[in-house]
Amino acid sequence: MTTTATAVTLRIQAPLDDGYADASPDELERRIAAAKATLGERVFILGHHYQRDEVIRWADARGDSFKLAQLAKARPEADYIVFCGVHFMAEAADVLTGPHQQVVLPDLNAGCSMADMADIDSVEEAWEALGEHVDLARVIPITYMNSAADLKAFVGRNHGAVCTSSNARAVLDWAFERGDQVLFFPDQHLGRNTGFQMGYDESHMRVWNPRLDLGGLSADDVRSARFLLWKGHCSVHQRFSPEHVAAFRAEHPDGIVVVHPECSREVCAAADQVGSTEFILRAVADAPVGSVIGVGTEIHMVNRMAAETPDKTVMSIDPLVCPCSTMFRIDAPHLAWVLEELVEGRVPNRVVVDADDAEWARIALQRMLDIT
Ligand code: 13P
Ligand code: SF4
């Protein structure tokens, strides 16, 4: 179970008072700079690539979810880790940091709709149902980083591991050295795309629908599938279609298409390169000057790469904007608020994973770090 300093089970962000909500961008900038300077080395601000410009500019380090987890772990001197990202990332930081460190999420409503598609009760039910048909010792549960800490603890307890979009291949190779089947949650697309990359095809994969008995599968399916893929998805990435890729290519025949592995199999198959947000950033940086690059990921990141790479043309393959609405919740007023609270000696929006889950989640995360 996840708790915060102010709320035990519910994550509800109280509205900020008018002093923040009505402050001008210039005033917020001055206040954030002043609070950050006062806190000095005691605060370490992490920013995921999908954050708004008004937030990411204050980050001491930016990254994908894997890099941010590593960075949080590598900063024991900071008393406070202010995590500008979403709730599961802040939980992972809490699990990986020392007991003297406190992790703060500027807006508690910044969750992840994909992470919410798998909860501990449904995963435990699935595990029990599977156990009636297969030897669970040969099933390796793998959870994507985009999942609550109690699911990371579940895989820790059951000889599994966490993976991120940047190391799913290595983690799945590790899993198949230890078992015959993988239960992969919550993102079916990352599981499927990685399976194809490893040489498997649809015949080795079945989608587990947690709303149906035995995942909606026959006992034969359950026994024969190498990949049992949880029926979860990211609504931002699922929007991209092969038609977007085709339209981009028609307009830019020499263009390069780079997409995130949370996109569908068809989109990934049509792309030139597939990888995590950090991978996408590198792909853009490494492309020859003058390249036209069509990207399939969150729009704030795409727009920032376009602005920061003036010698190349970077655009979304989807002409309609597709922001991550939960990442978007973190804004300058919330960042100013948490920093000023910290200056006053109060710790707002602390994200804490309870001790037992934290221990097992740490084991599952450490397995991932050791594999990669
Ligand atoms: P990355 O690990 O690639 O940053 O992905 C996290 C995420 O939530 C993508 O939607
Ligand atoms: Fe979650 Fe999708 Fe937002 Fe990533 S982009 S944080 S997977 S909702």
Please specify the SSE layout and strand pairing.
Blueprint: E1 2-4, H1 18-21, H2 25-39, E2 43-48, H3 53-56, E3 61-63, H4 65-73, E4 80-84, H5 87-96, E5 102-104, H6 120-131, E6 139-144, H7 149-157, E7 161-163, H8 168-178, E8 181-185, H9 188-197, E9 205-208, H10 219-224, E10 227-230, H11 242-251, E11 256-259, H12 265-270, E12 273-274, H13 277-286, E13 292-296, H14 299-308, E14 313-316, H15 332-343, E15 351-353, H16 355-371
Parallel strand pairs: 2-3, 2-4, 4-5, 6-7, 6-8, 8-10, 9-10, 11-12, 11-13, 13-14
Antiparallel strand pairs: 1-15
Helix pairs in contact: 2-15, 4-5, 5-16, 7-16
The structure holds 1,3-dihydroxyacetonephosphate (13P) and iron/sulfur cluster.
| Estimated share of beta-strand residues | 15-25%
Major sheet strand order = 7-6-8-10-9
Main pleated sheet:
5 strands, parallel
CATH top level class name of the largest domain? Alpha Beta
Bound molecules: 1,3-dihydroxyacetonephosphate, iron/sulfur cluster
Number of domains: 3
- What is the terminal separation in angstroms? 28 Å
Compute the CA-based radius of gyration. Answer: 21 Å
What is the fold-level CATH name, i.e. the topology of the largest domain? Rossmann fold
Number of strands: 15
